[in-house]
Backbone:
């Protein structure tokens, strides 16, 4: 059974079009000056924004692979938990850097 | 389709009643913190991100309810999570565009933004559209609540020898009365704290249900292997069936829904405005979307997945023909013990009530801000002194809450004939959000977007949307991505693409032709009979819009009439409405947020990095409402006299309930001491002897 229209086609559509909107959001707010990477707190927000995009794209890709039987559903859970740990670690590092200044 | 009644035991009902009483007592305890309309609607701009995040859970999970996602989970599997996992794309626009603007410009409602950014007439139209949206949303909430409780109620009851049937509308009216009473006496602080508690309970109840379900089935591996591959996939099929397909829901939810939820849901916006500062609002939004929504997706949909798995192994326990909107209640009843089922149902219905009461509170805020006050201003009524005016507005707000509740119940009639709540909600979002979404979005991010363009979007865009709704097979089908048209409910989701495109097209077209409009109107102004010409033009616009609205003649003439509206509206607006790009965009677009911050503070913001400090307070009887810190603490915080300061009880678990904003006064030399005036102590609910945490805001 061809599951492309049920699996990867929606995936590419979501992250293709959604990705364009996401990049447009960052670009427009940077150009407008409301998102200012010269401010250290905004650098932390850039990390969070990019992490969020990767977080969701990874989540959907892993869930699709698990549904298609290519990986175990437990792999999805462990990978996502590892990403949460990375997120907390890096975000706290940013907080320390911001606080130290 | 199989439907149920009288599910549950006496123990379940006792648990439910106790739960509701406990929640109402909890809410009424915090209603004591409501002192004025600012507290009633906005909670006094004082709360921490974690409190707002959990408070949003009850609002979000309640509205994206257990009922509708369990229904789709039962019909289509794990792809019911789709709509919870597609909200990240607009987050930069929200965090660094809309959120700072609404906070720094001190607007209290979305229509007020339209007045400042465009014109009073834009505000008037935005108020109408927003009230329709909010009341429709309340209607959806009541419909879901009704569908959730009906399976627990008997088909009829006997009173004084008469047999009275229990209908969906009857149940909804009783629920509306209970909800109305609660919100009328609560206010935003009570809602926030009640939602905080319910947020935790909801997540716990939903995950508990998943655990019970997995245990009932014999473990996660059994559950996983029971589901067919299509049911495990995280997204629906690209374009079929018409009742649940990826591309339609992408446009309805990920685009119109996400912008609608983040940018024009007054209930959610008021939550963010209750945050102590913009950065806390960003944190609340980020944590909510990144981590809470994926957990919520499991919480709200798992009853449907478990139900599907049970229907495969034991169709005699759960028939595949169970009404999808009842599957949550049916599954919870089967897998949870008596009493526990009552707890889960109480959590579900209380969460739905949270959503509805947040929306009622928000709609009352719009009424006070965008109808009551402008009318008072128009009638040139003398405004009584602060406290007296606040008291009168609080009374008006409470009456408004009651009227909004009644209108919400009536709105159910428009949605109750959809096969599921999910489709009713999808149709509602696709239809009502696009004009406002386009208006807000372009208003914030495009300086050249003018008053005439936004009004043309509202009027001309709506005219084209009406035509789309009337002739979907002709106008919406070119955008349908191969989705089959259901004649009874045509293009419930993908109509969002058509509606967004026509509104955006009208908006961009009207904005790009601004110079021509001004030039043409200048020529008309030069004529002696300019006013007569423009009044005739206005009459023609009204006639053309009426022709579209009431569907006179065939499609061709209606399309011509709609384009007539699109051409003439910007001209009439350019003539009648005063708009100055420099004034109307100052501090109100993403490119002028630094001006907005300057206006908010009243002087140049101080962005020097500093750290929070801990201090004890002493009373000063100074007439000016300043906070005076020592030189040492001022230096630690990187603050100067005149900067904005936020002070709160040191106990962070209070989430900012006891806190206040003010301005730094001249420093003194007593290290560890802050001098506060009585009004700050009263506003901040600060207790004597308690250590305080202070930080510079800007």
Residues:
């Amino acid at each position: 059974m061809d599951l492309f229209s049920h699996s990867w086609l929606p995936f590419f559509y979501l992250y293709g079009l959604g990705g364009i909107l996401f990049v447009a959001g960052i670009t427009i707010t940077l150009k407008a000056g409301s998102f200012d990477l010269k401010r250290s707190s905004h650098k932390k927000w850039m990390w969070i924004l990019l992490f969020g995009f990767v977080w969701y794209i990874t989540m959907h890709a892993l869930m699709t692979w698990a549904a298609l039987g290519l990986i175990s559903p437990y792999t999805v859970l462990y990978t996502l938990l590892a990403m949460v740990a990375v997120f907390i670690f890096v975000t706290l590092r940013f907080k320390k850097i911001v606080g130290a200044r | 389709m199989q439907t149920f009644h009288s599910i549950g035991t006496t123990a379940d009902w006792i648990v439910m009643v106790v739960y509701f009483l406990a929640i109402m007592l909890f809410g009424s305890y915090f209603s004591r913190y409501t002192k004025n309309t600012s507290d009633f609607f906005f909670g006094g701009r004082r709360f921490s991100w974690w409190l707002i995040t959990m408070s949003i859970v009850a609002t979000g999970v309640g509205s994206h309810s257990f009922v509708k996602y369990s229904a789709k989970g039962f019909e289509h599997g794990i792809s019911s999570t789709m709509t919870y996992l597609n909200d990240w794309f607009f987050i930069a626009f929200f965090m660094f565009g809309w959120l700072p603007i609404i906070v720094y410009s001190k607007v209290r409602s979305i229509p007020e933004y339209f007045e400042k950014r465009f014109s009073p007439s834009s505000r008037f139209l935005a108020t109408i559209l927003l009230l329709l949206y909010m009341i429709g949303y309340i209607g959806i909430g009541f419909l879901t609540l009704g569908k959730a409780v009906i399976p627990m109620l008997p088909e009829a009851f006997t009173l004084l020898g008469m047999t009275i049937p229990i209908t969906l509308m009857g149940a909804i009216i009783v629920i509306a009365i209970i909800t109305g009473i609660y919100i009328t006496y609560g206010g935003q602080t009570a809602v926030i704290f009640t939602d905080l508690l319910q947020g935790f309970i909801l997540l716990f109840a939903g995950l508990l249900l998943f655990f019970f379900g997995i245990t009932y089935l014999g473990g996660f591996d059994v559950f996983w292997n029971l589901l067919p591959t299509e049911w495990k996939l995280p997204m629906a099929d690209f374009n079929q069936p018409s009742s649940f397909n990826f591309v339609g829901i992408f446009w309805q939810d990920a685009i119109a829904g996400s912008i609608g939820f983040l940018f024009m849901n007054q209930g959610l916006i008021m939550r963010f405005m209750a945050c102590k500062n913009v950065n806390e609002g960003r944190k609340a939004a980020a944590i909510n979307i990144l981590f809470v929504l994926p957990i919520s997706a499991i919480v709200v949909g798992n009853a449907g997945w478990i139900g599907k798995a049970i229907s495969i192994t034991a169709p005699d326990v759960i028939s595949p023909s169970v009404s999808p909107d009842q599957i949550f209640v049916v599954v919870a009843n089967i897998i949870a013990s008596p009493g526990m089922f009552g707890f889960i149902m109480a959590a579900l219905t209380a969460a739905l009530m949270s959503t509805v009461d947040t929306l009622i509170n928000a709609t009352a805020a719009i009424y006070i801000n965008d109808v009551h006050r402008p009318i008072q201003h128009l009638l040139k009524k003398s405004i009584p002194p602060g406290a007296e005016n606040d008291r009168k507005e609080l009374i008006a707000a409470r009456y408004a809450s009651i009227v909004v509740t009644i209108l919400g119940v009536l709105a159910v009639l428009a949605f109750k004939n959809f096969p599921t709540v999910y489709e009713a909600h999808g149709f509602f979002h696709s239809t009502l959000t696009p004009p406002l979404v386009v208006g807000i979005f372009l208003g914030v991010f495009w300086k050249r977007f003018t008053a005439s363009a936004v009004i043309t979007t509202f009027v001309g865009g709506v005219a084209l949307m009406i035509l789309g709704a009337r002739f979907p097979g002709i106008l919406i089908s070119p955008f349908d991505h191969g989705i089959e048209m259901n004649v009874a409910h045509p293009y419930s989701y993908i109509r969002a693409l058509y509606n967004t495109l026509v509104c955006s097209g009208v908006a961009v077209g009207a904005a790009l032709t601004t110079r021509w409009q001004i030039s043409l109107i200048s020529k008309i102004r030069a004529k002696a009979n300019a006013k007569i010409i423009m009044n005739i033009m206005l009459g023609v616009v009204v006639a053309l819009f009426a022709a579209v609205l009431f569907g006179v003649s065939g499609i061709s003439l209606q399309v011509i009439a709609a384009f007539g509206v699109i051409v003439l509206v910007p001209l009439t607006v350019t003539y009648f409405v005063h708009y100055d790009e420099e004034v109307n965009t100052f501090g109100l677009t993403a490119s002028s947020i630094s001006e907005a911050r300057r206006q908010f503070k009243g002087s140049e913001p101080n962005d020097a990095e500093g750290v929070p400090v801990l201090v004890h307070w002493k009373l000063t009887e100074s007439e000016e409402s300043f906070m005076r810190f020592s030189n040492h603490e001022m230096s630690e915080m990187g603050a100067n006299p005149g900067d904005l300061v936020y002070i709160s009880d040191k106990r962070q678990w209070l989430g900012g309930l006891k806190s206040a904003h003010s301005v730094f006064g001249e420093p003194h030399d007593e290290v560890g001491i802050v001098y506060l005036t009585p009004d700050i102590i009263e506003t901040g609910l600060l207790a004597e002897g308690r250590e305080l945490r202070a930080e510079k805001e800007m």
